[in-house]
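Protocol step 4 of 5: obtain the predicted structure for the target chain.
Materials: sequence only (see below). No template structures provided, no constraints applied. The aim of this step is simply to have a reference model before the mutagenesis design in step 5. Sequence pasted as it appears in the construct record:
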Amino acid sequence: MNDKVRWGILGTGKIAKAFATALKDTPDAQLAAVGSRDLASARRFAREFGGTAYGSYDDLVAAGDVDLVYVGTPHPAHYENVRLALEAGKGVLCEKAFTVNRRQAEELVALARAKNLFLMEAMWTRFLPALAEVRRIVDSGEIGTVRQVNADLGFKADVGPEHRLFNPVLGGGALLDLGIYPLSIAVALLGPVEGVLAHADFGPTGVDEQTGILLRHGGGGMSMCSCSLRARLPSELTIAGERGHVRMNTMFYRAQTVTVVRADGISRTVPTPYAGNGYVHEVAEAQRCWRAGLVESPGMTHADTLALMGVMDEVRRQIGLTYDADQSMTTKETP
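Step 4 output (structure tokens):
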């Protein structure tokens, strides 16, 4: 009996290659197959990373030697790709943003639960050592009752309008691609959202190129999250309490150190190295959950994913950003 968890990768883009690299560094992980709508692309991927190449997604999810499917396609394709894998009886780890809207996410979660199959959003930051250390410091009471989180993520995207970052057909825009990171970690640290206020700047393709979001959380805290495809932001996160703050340094989504600064002036920096390219930790968690027969991870629950998709739906409503998937859902409901 194969003691490794056999992965199938759906898609052959940049994020799929990063995931395949992580599999090499994850104990008990094996890349069994890769699927693309272009067989030549799948074969190139397989030559570089291993596994059997398939020229269709249907063939990939039907493969008998695949235990879990990783979906690494553009955002608007996630709904159909995840549904395809679940219908084939495969557990799924789907790249963020999980879907385009909450309605799609609800359908996928319901299907996974009905079939008793594992399903998780690939929010790798939830499983990094840096976040675990931040939680430990907060729980210790060292910085007092937490009141506020500030998180941003942004860079100048030097790509053309047809690129997925700016192409509305491919789910382009700062919110879905970058904003999900600060939003997810703010919710992880401060809890459920009770109020949302958002503003955005739009580019010529009709998608948000930078967005600012103010959240009021149920526990009484507030968070300010921003994302940009126009500016190189610090991309740090600070969580502040009554007696100090903790900062996840230099690209918080892959922070290798966190710094504690107390009101009395004492500070220290704690190393928080991660394994491989950082994706290793979410892979290990997905494998653990799948082997245990779980349908979700306690570190990134279905409720977490649905709540975040709901927050982003509200942000998009306020800034006036829609995608084709929103229209198709409305059409489906029209009598």
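Step 4 remarks: Residues 302-319 form the longest helix (18 residues). The longest strand covers residues 193-202.
Proceed to step 5.
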